[in-house]
Design goal:
Blueprint lengths: L2 H13 L1 H33 L7 E4 L4 H8 L10 E2 H8 L4 E13 L2 E6 L2 H4 L11 E4 L9 H4 L1 E4 L1 H7 L6 E2 L2 E2 L13 E7 L10 E4 H16 L16 E2 L1 E6 L9 H11 L5 E3 L1 H44 L1 H9 L4 H42 L9 H18 L1 H8 L3 H5 L4
Parallel strand pairs: 4-10, 6-9
Antiparallel strand pairs: 1-12, 1-13, 2-11, 3-4, 3-8, 3-12, 5-9, 6-10, 7-9
Helix pairs in contact: 1-12, 2-10, 2-12, 2-13, 10-12, 10-13, 10-14, 12-13, 12-14
């Protein structure tokens, strides 16, 4: 196309600058929304698979297997029903298991969920399969260290350290429950002994403590409320005071193998116990993504509807533009521009709006995407990638361009059929 034609298009866009910017913005938002959905579909699935780590089976007493995974792995809320240590010890004695780690949820540190567990959480459980824990500072709990001071030790995740400013040597107190407005355990201060490196999993926002500590802490409050003057210690804790909310299990496998027939056998046998909710975390994450996928499809349709609405706006803007420039079009025709050239000018203007809108949409995602991903990681512990797939970007940009050009067909037809004689007739 000749430079003079493009100059005409640019001048037309600048002449109605407000409507041009508004229309481009509508297209940009629709494009950014579409690209966000395309980008986050696979990223979300990968993010949810992180955190379940190398465990094969999760045992809890929640309402459903999915609820158990969300509560014990993603810290959605504290499980409502506990399990006894006697039950844990029975399960852990199974010779088909490589390890069994008890956990208890229920307190928080400035809004960050706590998980009471054993030292094996840092030596056997991997937050991301194949990626063991690494410490940015300090160490984990020492197995066999049962001194009174060792009980009151904390290890904090990367997000906790970043959000609170705490580090090795800091002294803190926990709050009962998941609400920061709960009762503060002022009688039991903890000392931070380790800060974990980021894992890209929900565990980055967790606070780890020893099981003995949470048992003693809550037993002290319970005994004080009931008038029992006996100071709780590990040796005098009752069975009701030694409770947990979940068990992480991994079956024995051959070296280099991820699964074994023992996993299915252990899973099926545990499910027969009506007291337990037994889940395979990887399967439950898959179920969750299928549920989210159905919602995702609805949102995707809405995004395309928004883009289609933007195309209608382009058509209305171009229609109004052609209507206002009928006399200018007639002058172009007199100067030698054929009807086809006039129609092409209108289509080019629609295409430019579409391309600018698509480009702004991509830029919007590149700028706002990392910010949104950072907020999600900070609050939920999920690592979402905002890397744009070139194929998805190309399809959305080309689809936007095609829609905008289709939207310009009616205004282009108007320009093509402009009556030169009528428009150049003296006015007044």
């Amino acid at each position: 196309m000749a430079l003079t034609d493009m100059h005409i298009v640019v001048r037309s866009l600048r002449h109605r600058l407000f409507s041009t910017i508004t229309t481009i913005s509508m297209v940009a938002v629709a494009v950014a929304l579409l690209l966000t959905l395309f980008t986050l579909r696979e990223s979300a699935a990968r993010a949810f698979s992180r955190g379940t780590g190398n465990m094969h089976v999760l045992v809890a007493a929640d309402d459903s297997p999915l609820a158990a995974v969300l509560n014990s792995v993603f810290y959605a809320r504290a499980p409502r029903r506990p399990l006894t240590m006697a039950l844990y010890e029975k399960i852990a004695a199974d010779q088909r298991l490589s390890w069994a780690i008890p956990v208890q949820h229920g307190d928080n540190l400035r809004g960050y969920p706590s998980i009471a567990t054993t030292p094996e959480i840092f030596t056997k459980f991997q937050p991301v399969a194949g990626e063991p824990w690494r410490f940015a500072a300090g160490t984990g709990f020492s197995a066999g260290n049962d001194t009174p001071s060792a009980v009151w030790e904390l290890v904090i995740g990367a997000n906790v350290a970043k959000g609170t400013g705490l580090g090795v040597g800091s002294t803190v107190t926990l709050t009962h429950g998941t609400d920061q407005r709960g009762m503060v355990h002022t009688d039991t201060p903890f000392t931070v002994i380790g800060v974990l490196e980021p894992t890209g999993s929900p565990h980055d926002r967790a606070v780890f403590m020893r099981l003995d500590a949470t048992w003693i802490m809550h037993a002290r409050d319970t005994r004080k409320a009931s008038g029992n003057a006996v100071e709780p210690m590990v040796e005098n804790l009752t069975e009701r005071e030694r409770l947990i909310t979940g068990i992480f299990l991994r079956a024995k496998t051959r070296e280099g193998a991820e699964l074994s027939p023992a996993v299915g056998m252990v899973y099926d046998e545990l499910r027969r116990d009506v007291r337990l909710t037994v889940a395979r975390p990887s399967e439950e994450v898959g179920n969750l993504m299928r549920i989210v996928g159905n919602i995702d499809l609805i949102v995707l349709v809405i995004a395309w509807v928004v883009l289609f609405s933007s195309a209608i706006s382009v058509m209305l803007v171009m229609y109004e533009s052609v209507e206002q420039r009928r006399r200018q079009i007639a002058i172009l025709r007199v100067l030698g521009a054929g009807p086809g050239r006039v129609a092409l000018l209108v289509l080019t203007e629609s295409a430019v709006i579409g391309l600018l809108g698509a480009a702004c949409g991509v830029l919007l995602l590149l700028v706002a995407g990392p910010v949104a991903a950072g907020i999600v990681q900070s609050n939920l512990g999920l690592v979402l990638s905002v890397a744009i797939n070139p194929r998805d970007a190309a399809s959305v940009v080309l689809g936007t361009l095609a829609l905008c050009m289709v939207a310009g067909l009616v205004p282009a037809l108007m320009g093509y059929r402009t009556d030169v004689v009528r428009q150049l007739r003296p006015q007044g």
